[in-house]
Amino acid sequence: MSSVEHVFRVRRLYKLIFRVHRALPPELRIMGDNYARDEFKRHKKCNPEEAKIFLNEWTDYAITLAKQMKPIQQAKKKKVGEYLDPKLLDHMTDEQLVQLYELHKAATEPSTDEQSIPDKK
Fold first, then answer.
1. What keywords were assigned to this record (predicted)?
2. Is 17 exposed, middle or buried (0-12, 13-18, 19+ CB in 10 A)?
């Protein structure tokens, strides 16, 4: 693949991810946009082998999320995302594991709206 084709493919995927994120709830959209932006910046100068893996994974992510954001899927399942195969953890670097943990914490901590609502008993 030529350099021009590669750049075009990366830009098209990048824009697609942000377009798909528009269907997410606001707090997930912000987190998803920031994460995608950081990851694409971080991999801007990676080697061709890493670039291929990176683009394949983000393409799979965009396709999966686009399917889940269809109105019919939302009405049926009301779920976003999918579980990570535990076997993949064996192939991650320490830095990736820390990043994954930080992402998990950000995704599971209650939002400020939920914290300010008193419990009704």
1. Chaperone, Mitochondrion, Transit peptide
2. buried
DSSP 47-100: -HHHHHHHHHHHHHHHHHHHHHTSHHHHHHH---S-PPPGGGGGGS-HHHHHHH
pLDDT tens-digit map of 63-86:
989 888 876 555 455 666 677 788
Q: Which of helix, strand or coil describes residue 42? A: helix
**What's CA 109's distance to the chain center, in Å?**
17
Q: What is the pLDDT of residue 33?
A: 95
pTM for the whole thing?
0.65
